[in-house]
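Anyone up for a design puzzle?
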């Protein structure tokens, strides 16, 4: 009992030391994860990784309840380093940073920094757990939802402002895609893999297709509309082949997509008449 208590005190002391280390290095703009493994090496060698992760979780919860968010990215990084296979930790921490923590900030720029950290974290989690279907879904969903349909939920001024921030971020979006395009590209890649995936990934794919078709109509871009209709056919074949038992749940998307598709030639003709 005494030894376990002593270990707990050692871990807590290391956490506080880590916090001071982070503050000392913040001005140098080092990544919070730098040196994490070396910092906790004495504990890891003792085989108490589970206890360490539990204490990190408790510390993160305490800090968030107190409104002290400075150390949270560092703690989340430690948790991910110690248990990279714990996919729930990646998705929970990324979602918390992208959705919950921005509400505590006073400026759009500060809120975007949290959203960005969340997207980068879920991106890293998927890279380190490429077969984790839940991480694939959350990454695609966050790309689609945060930067398109509901930008105001992240506290930014408008959808266009949010989309511009995402589109110009070379690390998050090296190909310069719109967020719905990036979300679909990720969903499409994951759907091609043989391993099982969550059905919600198909929902994300259809949501992106619908959004891009609406844009094609608005811009009278029949060529883009044709491309997204072909994408719809491909994803639909995937659903019919792998999820025939739930076809009824996709009927609303198909109806809406067909309704939008019927407007594509009209949009193109209208452009030619101008």
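Challenge accepted. My sequence:
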């Amino acid at each position: 009992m005494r030894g376990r208590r002593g270990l707990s005190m050692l871990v807590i002391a290391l956490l506080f030391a880590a916090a001071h280390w982070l503050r000392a290095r913040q001005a140098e703009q080092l990544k919070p994860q730098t040196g994490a493994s070396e910092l906790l090496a004495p504990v890891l060698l003792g085989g108490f990784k589970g206890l360490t992760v539990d204490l990190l979780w408790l510390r993160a919860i305490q800090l968030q309840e107190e409104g002290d968010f400075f150390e949270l990215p560092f703690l989340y990084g430690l948790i991910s380093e110690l248990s990279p296979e714990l996919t729930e930790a990646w998705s929970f921490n990324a979602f918390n940073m992208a959705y919950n923590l921005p509400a505590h900030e006073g400026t759009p720029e500060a809120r975007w920094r949290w959203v960005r950290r969340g997207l980068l974290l879920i991106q890293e989690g998927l890279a380190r757990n490429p077969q984790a279907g839940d991480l694939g879904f959350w990454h695609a969903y966050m790309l689609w939802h945060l930067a398109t349909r509901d930008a105001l939920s992240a506290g930014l001024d408008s959808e266009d402002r949010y989309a511009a921030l995402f589109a110009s971020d070379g690390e998050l979006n090296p190909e310069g895609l719109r967020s719905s395009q990036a979300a679909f590209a990720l969903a499409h890649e994951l759907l091609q893999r043989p391993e099982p995936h969550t059905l919600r990934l198909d929902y994300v794919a259809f949501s992106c297709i619908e959004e891009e078709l609406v844009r094609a109509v608005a811009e009278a871009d029949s060529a883009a509309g044709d491309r997204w209709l072909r994408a719809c056919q491909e994803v639909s074949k995937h659903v019919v082949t792998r999820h025939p038992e739930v076809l009824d749940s996709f009927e609303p998307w198909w109806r809406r997509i067909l309704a939008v598709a019927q407007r594509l030639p009209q949009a193109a003709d209208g452009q030619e008449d101008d």
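A detail worth pointing out: Confidence is low (pLDDT under 50) at residues 1-9, 18-23, 25-35, 267-274.
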